[in-house]
Design brief:
CATH superfamily of the domain at 37-66 and 74-229 in chain B: P-loop containing nucleotide triphosphate hydrolases
Number of helices of chain A: 11
Distance between the termini of chain B: 46 Å
CATH architecture of the domain at 37-66 and 74-229 in chain B: 3-Layer(aba) Sandwich
CATH architecture of chain A: 3-Layer(aba) Sandwich
CATH class of the domain at 37-66 and 74-229 in chain B: Alpha Beta
Strand content of chain B: 15-25%
CATH topology of the domain at 37-66 and 74-229 in chain B: Rossmann fold
Helix content of chain B: 25-40%
Largest sheet of chain A: 6 strands, mixed
Radius of gyration of chain B: 21 Å
Order of helices and strands of chain B: EEEHEEHEHHHEHEEEHHHH
Oligomer: heterodimer
CATH topology of chain A: Rossmann fold
Radius of gyration of chain A: 21 Å
Number of domains of chain A: 1
Shape of chain B: globular
Strand order of the largest sheet of chain A: 6-7-8-3-9-10
Helix content of chain A: 40-55%
CATH class of chain A: Alpha Beta
Chain lengths: 284, 285
């Protein structure tokens, strides 16, 4: 098991007028090889939660176990944790600073006490993983497109060779093609490199398509923690907490309401198409 | 009369070195011709770097044309004396709500614009109240903007523009940073002010489903206008849109996929009701 979160509480500005409980008795297990979709409205505690995963925020109470070890135990090696759990922030391209793309991505591994050859190898590998070709290595990271910048920023985290990759809304502000490209790259890391993924997203369509499990946060608590179809079957409750189901769920529901005897659990276009075609061949 | 008109608008970003020599020229807008009528709701779609934001800035005289012209309600953006009138006619709302709120109290933030226009105090308060009502945020007039959700902040930003009584609002990806509810709130608000206050709206977005109720859609690709039409015309051309790095709403895509699989369905199904209608007709037919 990769990460186990036990009774985690986090309070912002405790004992002041601004005191706010951001995480309230959170219990979550993330297994090796999981692809978790983490959803919740703005202020539900998603970003606070993910910042605990690599020790950036320290819980007010509770415990987090990484590979069986409590990260709050004395003498725990946070530096190592941060290289194992890679965190990609919102708008990570704002953190680019290198004069060349290669230099920017190499920054992480060059602080891990590696040889120059190893740093080079990791940097190339990371850039290759996000689909940045060699002819761009010497370009400035500020002269490329928005989608490319974001991929370079993600490569900067991948170059540390994390076991768990946590991404906080990695597709915000990208055009539809750019969104698909980033998500396909992430999915590839999951499938080919068996990387554990935690994807924070506002897009129900995206988490439905890629995640094997969805965790729904509301008011600092875990509201649902189940496979996508099971979570989206509660779409009325999701709406009450500012979320929704994927568009496809509403389409299938609409068909059911006009008398189609179909299974409404489809969450992706592919699944919906299959179910509708099979229904039609049944009735015709 | 056109409230917005561009005539062969060209804009180039020019890079110079330390000596002032031109090292690079990037043509972001290439011969754009746009007409927007008063009261229209126009959506602009386009990939990252297609020139959408550059266009928005050119319409508001933040950027001036390299060639061609931009005329806002008869005023040329190249004439410096027109600057204030242009910005008052065409207000802008940006992507990040946190970058455009300056007041510590909601009503003060909304009153900032008219105050700078020299509007008398009584009138400012009348406008603040009306604008907050327009965006459905009157209950929050004495709140701190920090405590609001992203969607609420964007509505405050819209109220701040409304208080300057513009004839046109340009919104540059106003929902990119919002959750589904916030997106819905903002888009609804924009449609309401378009209808009730007859404010012309230019909505720049990456979300296809925000576009289906627009009067007109303009698609940009690499600095040029490649498609123009109503949403149904635009979304009937699925493959073409995808070639421009864009997409269609999910319901449109599903209908399109079923059609490809041999079902006789109409082109460009835009809503779930249309979809269920089409499906039941198909089964009966």
């Amino acid at each position: 098991m990769a990460i186990k979160i036990e009774n985690l509480n986090y309070v912002y500005s405790p004992k002041t007028a601004y005191e706010k409980v951001a995480l309230d008795k959170v219990n979550i297990e993330i297994n090796d090889g999981d692809f978790i979709g983490l959803i919740g409205h703005t202020g539900s505690g998603k970003s606070t939660l993910v910042q605990h995963l690599n020790g950036l925020l320290k819980a007010t109470s509770g415990a987090i176990y990484y590979n069986g070890q409590n990260i709050y135990s004395e003498g725990y090696n946070f530096k190592e944790l941060r290289s194992k759990v890679g965190l990609v922030f919102q708008y990570p391209e704002h953190q680019l600073f290198g004069t060349t793309i290669f230099e920017d991505v190499a920054f992480g591994p060059s602080n891990q006490g590696l040889s120059k050859a190893e740093i080079d190898e990791r940097t190339r590998k990371a850039l290759d993983m996000v689909g940045i070709s060699e002819d761009l290595y010497e370009s400035s990271p500020f002269e490329i497109s928005g989608g490319q910048k974001r991929r370079v920023a993600i490569a900067g985290v991948l170059a540390m060779e994390p076991e768990v990759l946590v991404l906080d809304e990695p597709t915000a502000g990208l055009d539809p093609k750019g969104r698909d490209e980033i998500l396909e790259q992430i999915s590839k890391l999951h499938l080919e490199n068996n990387m554990t993924i935690v994807l924070v997203s506002h897009s129900m369509e995206d988490v439905a398509k890629y995640a094997n499990r969805i965790i729904v946060m509301n008011n600092g608590q875990v509201k649902f923690n189940d496979e996508p179809k099971a979570v989206f079957s509660h779409y009325k409750e999701l709406e009450e907490i500012g979320l929704a189901a994927p568009a496809v769920t509403y389409i299938m529901d609409g068909l059911k309401n006009i008398g189609f005897d179909i299974d409404v659990s489809a969450t992706t276009i592919e699944e919906a198409k299959k179910e509708i075609l099979s229904y039609i061949s049944r009735v015709q | 009369m056109d409230i917005i008109k561009t005539d062969n608008l060209v804009f180039e970003y020019v890079t110079t070195n330390e000596e002032g020599d031109v090292t690079d020229v990037n043509r972001a807008l290439n011969n754009l011709n746009i007409d927007v009528q008063k009261g229209d709701f126009v959506a602009i779609l386009g990939h990252n770097g297609s020139g959408k934001s550059t266009l928005a800035k050119a319409l508001n005289a933040i950027l001036l044309p390299t060639k061609g012209s931009v005329i806002i309600k008869g005023m040329d953006t190249r004439v410096e004396d027109n600057l204030w009138d242009i910005r008052q006619t065409a207000g802008m709302v940006f992507q990040n709500p946190d970058n455009q709120i300056i007041g510590t109290v909601v009503e003060e933030d909304v009153g900032f614009g008219p105050e700078n226009l020299g509007v008398p105090t009584d009138e400012i308060w009348t406008r603040v109240e009306k604008s907050l009502k327009d965006v459905n945020m009157l209950d929050y007039r004495t709140s701190s903007p920090n405590k609001l959700s992203g969607g609420q902040k964007q509505r405050i930003a819209i109220a701040g523009i409304m208080a300057m009584q513009p004839e046109c609002i340009i919104l540059d990806e106003p929902t990119a940073m919002l959750d589904p509810n916030g997106r819905k709130e903002v888009i609804q608000t924009v449609h309401e002010i378009n209808k009730t206050a007859n404010v012309t709206v230019l909505l720049i977005t990456h979300y296809m489903d925000e576009v289906i109720d627009a009067d007109k859609v303009i698609v940009m690709y690499q600095g040029e206008i490649v498609m123009q039409g109503n949403p149904r015309e635009i979304f009937s051309r699925v493959d073409e849109l995808k070639s421009y790095r864009l997409d269609v709403p999910q319901v449109t895509e599903l209908a399109y996929e079923l059609k490809k699989a041999g079902l006789d369905l109409p082109d460009a199904v835009l809503t779930i009701d249309e979809f269920t209608d089409a499906m039941s007709k198909y089964l009966k037919g």
